[in-house]
Amino acid sequence: MIKNDFDRVRCPRCRRFYLNKDQVFLDIANTIIHIKCYTLDTLPIKDRGTYKSIMEQYEFDKQEIP
């Protein structure tokens, strides 16, 4: 079976795929970024935690289709 990476998300700064244990920030534009990749020119932070906990807490890809 071939695994595709379409359901995986990368950090916008370092371009690495997130691991469930990675510590991340969630900014006010719902962008997830590694804590180590955060810089002062990034948008204000809304939440922080592991990638897994942020993805479980916020429903990013569950959009209603009319």
Summarize the structure.
Helix content is 11%, strand content 21%.
List segments where confidence is low: pLDDT < 50 over at least 5 consecutive residues.
none
Strand order of the largest sheet: 2-1-3
- Head-to-tail CA distance between termini: 34 Å
Roughly what is the average pLDDT, rounded to an integer? 84
- Structurally, the number of domains stands at 1
Specify the structural class: alpha+beta
Instruction: Describe the sheet with the most strands.
Output: 3 strands, antiparallel
Give the helix proportion (percent range).
10-25%
What is the number of E strands?
3
Could you tell me the strand content as a percent range?
A: 15-25%
What Rg is obtained from the alpha carbons, in whole angstroms? 13 Å
Structural overview:
The protein contains 1 helix and 3 strands, in the order E-E-E-H. The longest helix has 7 residues, at 51-57. The N and C termini lie far apart (34 Å). The radius of gyration is 13 Å and the shape is globular. The protein is of the alpha+beta class.
